[in-house]
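Hi W., the fe (ii) ion complex you wanted:
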Amino acid sequence: MTAIELLEKSYLHFNLSKIHTRELFYLEQIPFPLFSLKDDLFHVVLYPHTPVTKELLKGLLEKTELALYIDKDNHIKLKATQQDNLRKISRSLSIGEPVSRGRKQLNLMTLNMMYMYEDPTNDETLNLQYQATKNLSSFLLENQEVLPKLFSEYIKSNHHYIYAQPIVSSLFLIGVLKYSHRFSNKEIETLFITSLFKDIGMSALSEEKYNKKELKGKDKDLLASHPQLSANILAGRIPLGPSYLKIIERHHDKNNESVDEKGGVLFGVETHLIRIMDIIAAMITGRPYCPPCNIFEALELTKNQISDQYPQEFKTIVNYFRSFFKG
Ligand SMILES: [Fe+2]
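Structure:
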C-alpha cells in the first residue's frame, strides 16, 4: 500500500459512517458518494447523481454482504432529507392513492424509528415521530379498508424487525380497536401512540445484538428492562399521561393491568390488547433466527393469554384477523 493510499484509508476510516440501504428510499438521485470496503480500502461504489431506481435498490438489498459507507457530515444531511420527506408525506397523507401514500409514510416512519433508536434523547426526532404517528392514526381511522393491503406492502420492505415490530403491532391494534366499536377515535389514537413508542427502550442495545436468538448477561438484563427504559425515555417528552406510560412499563407482563392510587384497574383490556397484538405481530413476521408462523397458529398460541379473562375480546380479535387475511 502506498503512503497516499494509507493516508486516504485512515482519513476515510475516521470520517465515514455505515448507512442502511433503506436510507436511500424515496431519493431521486444518489446525493453523495457512497463507499464500500474492498481489500481493506474504501472505494466509491455509487457516485452522486446516479438515479435511484427500483432496480438499483433491489440489487443493493439483495447484496446483504455489501456494507455502504458515507461521509459523516453527508450522513447528517441524508438523515435531514429523509426526515423532511417524512414531514411532507405526513402533512399530505390524505391526498392521493391511500395505499402508496400509507406505505411511504410507514417506510419513512421506520427510518425515523431507526434514527430515534440511534439517538433516543433527540427531541426533534422524537417529536417528528410523534406528529407522524398522530397523522397516521387519523389517516388509518378514516381508511380502515387499506390496512390489509398496507400491511402486505409494508412487510415487503423487509425492515429490521426492531424498527418494524412496533409499527406492525400498532397497525393490528388500530384495526382491532376500531373493529371492536368500544373506543372513541381519541382513545384509539392515544393507544396507537402508546403502542408505537412502547419499545424505544430497546435502543439500549445495538441492532446487531437483536439478530441473536438469545442474549446473555447484561444484554439480557437490558432487554428485559426495555419497557421501564421506554417509559423513562418518554416521560415528560411526549404528551402521554401517566396511565399510558404505565401501560408501556407493563407491556410484556401477563398480569399487566395498570392500577390507580386507589387500587382500581386502569386500562385492563387495553394493555392486554397492546400485548397480544405485539405477540401476534412478532409471530407472523418472524425473526432472523426464527421463521414466521401463520395467523391461525399465532391466534391459537395467544388464546390462553387472553381468552379466559376477556373471552369476548378474544372473539373480536379472531373475527378481525379472519377478515384481515381472507383476501
Ligand atoms: Fe416490547
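The chain has 14 helices and six strands.

W.
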